Amino acid sequence: MKNKIRQNILAAVISTTMLSGGAFAEDVRMMWYSDGVEGEVMSDLLDRFMKKNPDINVILDNVAYQVIQEQLPIALEAGNGPDIARVTNIKAQAKHWLDLTPHLSNAEYWRKSFGDKADWMRPDGSNAITGFMTQLTLTGGYANKTLFEQANVPLPGAKATWDEWVDASAKVAANQQLVAAFAVDRSGHRISGPNVSFGANYIAADGKPNSVDEGTKAFVKKLVDWTNEGKHYRDVWVSAAGSSYRSAAEEFINAQVPFYYSGSWQISNLATKIGDDFDWVATGSPCGTAACSGLAGGAALVAIKYTKHPKAVARVMDYLASAEVVKEFSERTLFIPAHTGLSGRDLNFDTKSEQVKAALSGFMDASANVAPNALALPAWKYASAYYGALATRTSQAMAGELTLDQAFSRMDSDIAEKVK
């Protein structure tokens, strides 16, 4: 009897040891990209999860954003991919997301906490719970306040137009001998808020894409003209091919341009890399002829339906979607949470910087100015097709490879092909 007891104890010890070492643990792979420090925060959170759940081994694959945009879709179409991924092309790829509902510990909690954005990440007409937004974002501008002050140029006011911002920034650039007046990320998504501000409407009455309209043409023409005049930083857009994304953050961080149009997700990145080098402010979105709109959105953490470990994936997602973890993640990453029970203004953001606090507050205030045509885009399954065509053909017009009329015609044909 004593020998049998000792054998049982030894077996339990061996089992526990092997679980702790991950030998019997289920591997769950998460593909993750970062704009700032969020990869480090996620790694810490997952380490804590695994200590409490030794039967699950979460492998965090930190990749470049281009991998998410260009390589992940190929894997998904082949029925492969990670078990969980952080993505921004949420709606168009929704057919690849796993419905977590039957595996969650409390599906009603998910509906209550994240339900208002659920349609952003599931097929039209579906009630599936496929993931949650890691943060809410809004496109908008940043100004190098120090450069404006050194050039003795006042910062444009809250309702300033795109023309006023570009003119003021051009004066700063000339005075300070900078490479350009401003830079916009190479992204069709990034110029969609400005397009809407000039009256663009991408969505036709039947839900299919509209032809490129006068609102889109108005801002794209301005952007191309400003590029040809040397006001917009040309290299960001013509240095890449197709719809490839390129951020202009480094140009702003290195004080090469006084005005930068990107979005709220850059706050942590700017705060970390700029430090005390210069003062900067979030400006909101300049006005067009129809609105002063940015584009709401964000990144989602979704489960992939090709996983072989749906129950383990659901346990990881349950943990990361819990209110306390969402709160900590948001505070440490300086992101605005998508959890309906957490207000951005109530969070104790992990920063002593008044610039950062002001920027977060500014973006939350700017969210009230998002135009209806922009609000409709995150849940529209053809949005990515439109964004890709905008980036590809606008950059070709900037490079002189196409006339504007040719670029607009190619945009329509590109979008039609994607829809087909």
Please render the helix and strand layout as text.
Layout lengths: L1 H19 L5 E7 L5 H15 L3 E7 L2 H13 L6 E4 L19 H8 L16 E14 H6 L11 H15 L5 E3 L7 H6 L16 H15 L6 H4 L10 H5 L5 E5 L3 H8 L5 E5 L11 E8 L6 H12 L1 H11 L20 H13 L5 H4 L7 H16 L5 H16 L1
Parallel strand pairs: 1-2, 1-3, 5-6
Antiparallel strand pairs: 3-8, 4-6, 4-7, 4-8
Helix pairs in contact: 2-13, 8-16, 16-17
Your description of this structure?
There is one protein chain. The chain is α/β, with parallel strands linked by helices and 420 residues long. The longest helix is centred in the first third of the chain and has 19 residues, at 2-20. The model is unreliable at 1-22 (pLDDT under 50). Helices cover 44% and strands 13% of the residues. The chain has helices at residues 2-20, 38-52, 65-77, 107-114, 145-150, 162-176, 192-197, 214-228, 235-238, 249-253, 267-274, 310-321, 323-333, 354-366, 372-375, 383-398, 404-419; strands at 26-32, 56-62, 84-87, 131-144, 182-184, 259-263, 280-284, 296-303. The radius of gyration is 23 Å and the shape is globular. Helix 2 runs antiparallel to helix 13, helix 8 (214-228) packs parallel to helix 16 and helix 16 (383-398) runs antiparallel to helix 17. The protein starts with a helix and ends with a helix. The chain is built from 17 helices and 8 strands. Strands 1, 2, 3, 4, 5, 6, 7 and 8 form an 8-stranded mixed beta sheet that branches. The protein folds into 2 domains: 25-136 and 297-346, D-Maltodextrin-Binding Protein, domain 2 (3-Layer(aba) Sandwich); 137-296 and 352-419, 3-Layer(aba) Sandwich (D-Maltodextrin-Binding Protein, domain 2).
